Amino acid sequence: MMNKPIIVITMGEPGGIGADICLDIPLINNFTLIIIGDLQLLKNRALLLNKPRVFRQIQMNEIIAKTASANSNEILVLHVDCPILDTVGALYSQNAAYVLQLLDIAANLCEKGVASAMVTAPISKEIINKAGYKFSGHTEYLAEKFACKKVVMMLANPLMKVTLLTTHLPLKDVAAEITRDNIEQTLHIIVEFFRVYYKIDNPRIGICGLNPHAGEGGYLGMEEVEIINPEIKKWQDMGYNISGAYPADTIFNSLNDFDVILAMYHDQGLPVLKYADFDNGINITLGLPILRVSVDHGTALSLAGTGLARGDSLIYAINQAMRLTNC
Fold first, then answer.
1. 196 and 321 both lie in a single domain
2. Residue 191: how many CB atoms within 10 A of its CB?
């Protein structure tokens, strides 16, 4: 019998809704889904939410040998001790190292080729930093772990895909990062990801301007005239389906014209995507040597343990991870 490909799922911040939504993962016939996290924490949350599931703790050697297989209604868990379990709706700095350990385990399994992809539940940047770790997000953490000079954040839902030239930066620092070199590296990563994972050799990429009305010919800013448009022209001359710079307030009316949109900064592209379909939003990190897909929402501490958290984003992330593994 051929071993099924494995997708590992990190449970995320213990005080948030990570455990809640992990209880909603479906049984997949052609993949093995494995949650990485504290088994007792997951059991406690299932009891609190009155969501009876059958859990089975598996060992690392079962994962490496790819012999783990779930039965009906069974959730497989690779247990990792969480220091403070009674965390519903609250953050504890003592759990920060545990949260990062989950990421390391999942990433290492993917790097070794044991797992085909990792799917991540939400974490709290705030509490990890308060615990003494310099941490600005999953994307940057994994980029540093794999010594990637550049990675690209892509948010997606069933309606659109949006990539970001800059990610978790204060708005005052964004303009300095709008460089031809940054755009070039970003486009290379996007094109390669679409070639490998979506089997699209020359994706249609629409690029947003930085300024209102894409700079209005220089009247509202020179970044488009001096940086963005010349780089777009260079790629067009090489035969790529790249166009812009478009005003960010109108480009999303032309979604059918593009496979992906490149926004200049975080809150230029993501409000539109999240408004269009928040529940099914996901985050994919482009440029890593592994495949990482995430939910596109936060820890939602106020919803933890209430039964109001929805697992749509996690389920969509798992489905897209399976699709993108090309297994």
1. no
2. 21
At 220, list the tokens.
């509202």
Domain count, the chain: 2
Residues 132 and 2 in one domain: yes
Phi-psi region of 239 (alpha: psi -120 to 50; beta: other; left: phi over 0): left
The Cα–Cα gap between 44 and 87 comes to 11
Neighbours of 12 (CB within 10 A): 28
Q: Residues 37-52: pLDDT tens digits?
A: 999 999 999 999 999 8
- 296-308: per-residue pLDDT in tens? 888 999 999 999 9
Note whether residue 23 is domain-resident. Answer: yes
Helices (H), 66-137: 96-111, 125-130
The pTM is what?
0.90
DSSP code, position 227: I
Same domain for 34 and 103? yes
Whether residues 3 and 143 share a domain: the answer is yes
Measured torsion, CA atoms of residues 294, 300, 301, 302, in degrees rounded to the nearest 10 = -160
CB neighbour list of residue 39: distance below 8 Å, 6 or more residues apart? 55, 57, 77, 79
Sheet strands side by side (includes 152-157): 54-58, 74-79, 32-37, 6-10, 117-120, 292-295, 282-286, 152-157, 160-164, 260-263, 205-208, 242-246
SS3 117: strand
Query: Does 282 map to a domain?
Result: no
Q: What residue numbers bound the domain in which 23 lies?
A: 1-148+288-327
Report the CATH number at residue 169: 3.40.718.10
Q: Which residues pair with 77 in a beta bridge?
A: 35, 57
